[in-house]
Amino acid sequence: MIKQILGKLPRKPSKSAEKSDFGGSSAPSNASFSSRSSDLASTGPINANSISLPSLDSVSNLGYSHGSRLAQVANTKPNGNLVTASYEALPAFRDVPSSDKQNLFIKKLNLCCVVFDFTDPTQHLKEKEIKRQTLLELVDYVTSANGKFSESVMQEAIKMVSVNLFRSMSPQPRENKVVVEGFDLEEEESLMDPAWPHLQIVYEFFLRFVASHETDAKLAKRYIDHSFVLKLLDLFDSEDPREREYLKTILHRIYGKFMVHRPFIRKVINNIFFCFIFETEKHNGIAELLEVLGSIINGFALPLKEEHKLFLVRALIPLHKPKCLPMYHQQLSYCITQFVEKDCKLADTVIRGLLKYWPITNSSKEVMFLSELEEILEATQPAEFQRCMVAERALYLWNNDHIENLIRQNCKVILPIIFPALENGRNHWNQVVQSLTLNIRKIFSDVDPELFEECLCKFQEDQSKLGETRRKHETVWKRLEEIAASKAAGEAILVPTSKPTETLSS
């Protein structure tokens, strides 16, 4: 009978480990953990205490199981909830001698490898509560551990985390949402994972396990390997923001503790961005990944490696292109500014990149670009500013004293470029723009009256030529319309061959 049941078990397809590498870190938050269910209902991580993280030198790949036999038997029915009669609570840690606690810890980890179906809240209530209480005990045990975790404990811990977290996700077909007025919060709530009451404790367990001083990085890297990290990064596309928040904190811990994984993590994030920018424009975790990267970029040593500069040019700057930019612009702007603050010579590259993707027909995105441009110019030195002066866009930045001084110093170059915009702005429909234009016009006139008068004469000359050109175009179009009207009336038309400027006769 058991063989027949096992023979019908569906085999889970393993995700390919052939994804590329790239990475980040986000600052973990700190809070005390309580075993009460009310604490687990919060939307944020039940965060571990801040712990300084050691580093690694090498990595080895050792596979881990995706679930015990008990977990597989628990998923043999279509609803995934066939639970054996032996699913009973194990003794508490306080009820066994110290010598047996490690074995009990492993048994509790195996017990938590059973995955329940939370889409039906009426099934297996007793078993779900046993698992929840067991997970809470595991968190407490990891938090208060006094000795190094053995390799067998690490293997079973990562197996339990993998079985519970690495699951197939079937996201609802929907476009990326932009946070605007009228955003439907109830619709966002409907995307919350019903299994979160258990998943949250699993995430908290893993966060504390990674951050614990009792977790030896040299042993742990055999199980927290590239394949594991890759699957963890895949989870950033979760539609549940609470899960993405935990992932962000955990990735920060892994990036800090496992130095050997850093290039791989950065490479994977890089490829996620490429796929998002040039293929799908759909991913739920771009903001969180950028927040992780903001911490990573902040820690880059100087001079910046060529690899990091290429990441800026090929991945970060093109992230301004997708329509859903408002969802992650704040985090993106922070990452970009970090690069410029570390190497002011990158200001020219960044500003030219912004102008390349400038949203001419999208005023709300244009405001974001202008705000980001102001932050970049704040970190720009005069020598670099001369290389990347930004035409009429600079008009919007005159409220910033630093930028105004830069523009004054380069008046002879900037005024001829922006003068047409100044003159046209005097008749703008928006009173604020008119007022701003007149103020800037007066400043330039006071700084260099001769240059201002020269620019004014040239502008009037150009306007006169433009008017003459427009009149010629109008004449040509009028003649073409007359010819077209004549053809429509069926009249014969004589087209001259030698003197096209002569009047055409019908």
Question: Can you tell me about this structure?
Answer:
α10 (226-234) runs parallel beside α12 (262-280). Among the domains are: 1-167 and 193-260, Leucine-rich Repeat Variant, CATH 1.25.10; 393-479. Helices cover 56% and strands 0% of the residues. It is elongated and about 95 Å long. With 506 residues, it is mostly helical.
* Large-scale geometry: elongated
- Whole-Å distance between the termini? 99 Å
How many β-strand stretches?
0
CATH architecture of the domain at 1-167 and 193-260: Alpha Horseshoe
Keywords: Cytoplasm
InterPro entries: ARM-like, ARM-type_fold, PP2A_B56
GO molecular function: protein phosphatase regulator activity
Organism: Morus notabilis
Secondary-structure blueprint:
Blueprint: H1 2-7, H2 37-40, H3 69-73, H4 101-111, H5 125-143, H6 151-165, H7 185-189, H8 196-211, H9 217-220, H10 226-234, H11 241-257, H12 262-280, H13 286-298, H14 306-316, H15 329-342, H16 346-356, H17 363-378, H18 382-387, H19 401-409, H20 411-425, H21 431-447, H22 449-488
Search tags:
Leucine-rich Repeat Variant; mainly alpha; 0% strand; 506 residues
Offer a quick outline of the entry.
With 506 residues, the protein is an all-alpha fold.
